[in-house]
Request: fold
Amino acid sequence: MNPPSQSYGAAGSASNSSDGGGISAPFIRRPIATVLLTAAIALAGIVAFLQLPTAPLPQVDFPTINVSANLPGASPDIMASAVAAPLERQFAHIAGLSEMTSASYLGSTSITLQFDLNRNIDGAARDVQAAINAARANLPSNLPQNPTYRKVNPADAPIMIVALTSDIQPGAALRCGIHHHAAAAASD
Reply:
């Protein structure tokens, strides 16, 4: 049995004459067309990339509510066990609650409730108020006022805070100069 005949092209590589060269054969036979096709695909990709819409920050409003309570003189442990825990037990029953975090400090506690993106923030606020009212019986009797809540949007937090001091300029002149320079930079 004789092996299939081989022919050597201009590049000196052997090609099998019995299989027709496969998918790469037309690209090998026409190198200029291959380069032009590659350049056209790359150019189309660059044009398509430049046409993509972009935003510096996505506009997502996370339905988030922050609940705070104060008990003057109470240690963080007391705030966590006597104030935050009863509130958290009530908040856990609210529909659409995706995340709950709390932090207790000397005399205060803060609970952040984040809801599913499809949850209406006003409906969630009504549920939070109802949970605060339901937890009131389990809170310390010497709590000066009911826990309060406010709607917050984590995306509205500043991305940078700058503090400046000067030994030469007084505070008012420094603030005026900063406002002037910041306004000029923002208008550019």
About this structure: Residues 39 and 45 are 10 Å apart (CA to CA).
